[in-house]
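2024-03-11 09:14:02 DEBUG pipeline.ingest accepted 1 chain
2024-03-11 09:14:02 DEBUG pipeline.ingest length=711
2024-03-11 09:14:03 DEBUG pipeline.predict start
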Amino acid sequence: MQSWITKNLNFRIRANLGVKLVAIALATLVIIFSVSIYQSNQTIIANLRRDASRELNSAAALVAKKVDGDKDAALMVAASIANRPDVQRLVAEKNRQELANLLGPLFGQLKDQHKIIHFNVIDERGVVILRLNDPENFDDYVFYNAVVSNTIDTRLPTGGLEVDINGLSMRGAAPLFYEGLFIGLIEIGIDYSQDFANLMKRETRADVLIWFYKPSTARFGVEFTGESISSPNDSFIYYAGTKTDDLRTESANLEQAFSTFDNIFALYLENEQAQASLMVPILGPDATFFGVTEISIDYTERLALEKRANVAEQLGAIGISFLGLIAIGIAINFLTVSPLRKITNFAEGIAEGATTTQLHLKTGDEFEQVAGALNQMALSIAEKQEDLQRQVSQRTSQLMASNEVAKVANSILDPDELISSVIKLITDNFGYYYAAIFLVSEDGRWAELKDATGTAGEALKARRHRLPVGGSSMVGTAVSSRDARIALDVGEAPVRFNNPLLPNTRSEIALPLIVGDRVLGALNVQSIREADFKPEDITTLQSMVSQVAVALENARLFREMNESLEELRQSNRDFVTTTWRDRLKTGKMEHTSHPNLAFLSEDDTFHQIEVPLNLREQKIGQIAIDISQDWDAEDQAWVESLATQVAISLENSRLLEESQQAALRERLSASIIQKVWSANNVDTIIQTAVRELARSLDAAEVKIELKVDGQ
């Protein structure tokens, strides 16, 4: 029966998988037909985008290399001229004519060979002494030029792109010194206009367009050659380039290059036309944004060729894919039943708690990977269960220790016994090798060791170990700061007392014993393992510390209460003794060893005994009885009970008599005061007072003397 069920189940699995795989194959084929062209086109575009980005970045690198080379050339030329002594002397003399005669031929050579269009001699203030490219124009102030201003400020060579009335150029400036003094600079400028764009197109095989940013360049009065060319952005204007028609420059890309100062790549696809461009910001030496160099390549022809080639490829791929899907579906239908059955049984076993077994599949495919993952999951579950059981066991042990501390705190009123029990519980239940409790001294300056575990603890107690409050120890710091001090690695603890008797300590904790606003001391626990104080351990120890602090405070209050009660008892005994001593006079007594009976005399015919009258543990008298026969225990108990009642009655009578006497005195005082107040002159007041005092006190004579000043 079981075998039939298993076979039926396997058949259903195969049948279900077969149907599903056929459906998946058909759906996949439909999807392939639907999206193949789209995917292939997207792939072509993605490849085109990747290749275009790589080619444009390579072109941008060539442009950057050209710019850097021109910068170095301008700096080198400027430096070579600035280092000539004859030039330095003539600049110091500001001899314009001699400088023109000396440098004019050199400028002619440089202009033809290196496209140098600027050759300026500038003094230390930024005023042009000689402009070889425009000799009639001098004595103007050019400190606004960043290359010039940086060279004057730093006295160092400076290079970079600049824009002036003549357009864009690469400038290089070198300082001039004469007899150790800075006297000016030589500035060289290489043309970066249409010739530069043409050169870059020849070297990169890409169109190069230069767009000027109007807000940065308009102030220089630049004469633009491309104002008739439409700009996609009102803030930018065409300056020079190798392409003037069919421009596809996006306004947003220009703005993004301006806002980010980064290269911006874009691919334009429209009406089977494809063009890629890279916007490269034009920055001056002080990061002034002058505009954008747009490098673009037309990919329309390439895109058309790749799309045509892809059509034939996709048709063949669709047919092959269909046949492959059918074959794969058949193979999967037969190859997946057994692994799936094993995986299912193993997963059900894990769900039922069988986490110690392993699933063995050697298929060499994803099923084996799944089996490995399931084995790892089972192992992880088993480890987590074991870890959870360990944590539960540890937490249970901690809770039991905390409960034990609570029991000890509630049952022991002797502080020394309480402290000893607590530290023993901590070391026994937590596994720490040292625990100690310190209490603050009466003057508040020291944390004194009261008890500690182990041989080190005995040695420390023997030497009356103590630590200064607030000193360089964790205990002292915990007491002074009223906060826990924890060192998971004692080697890194900034404040800690390194006890030579505890050399194996690797982690330590000190928790203050606080009750209300008072700090009683601190609990110090040390371990031979680093980072041995987990958060749950710290929480449990803090709970214990709170209980111990309350218990110590209760023990102190209990001791003080007992001392106060003992003082009250002693005062009461003294009061009773004094009171009855004044009222009774006793004669000579003989005492026996019997705790309650005292024999005064004895003859042949009778015995006389005394039963003491005790009141609040004080003897105030006795009852003397003559007996002619021996007493039994019942007689003795009866007489003792009677003596107790007599003592209480006597005390009550005494208290009543004293109360009556006090009341009588109060009434007499009130009567005398009333009569005195009723008199209306001094003589009457004195006579009334004398008469009433004599009558009340039964005195033979009463005098009242009045003292007069000077007598």
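2024-03-11 09:14:41 DEBUG pipeline.report The first strand starts at residue 116 and ends at 123.
2024-03-11 09:14:41 DEBUG pipeline.predict end
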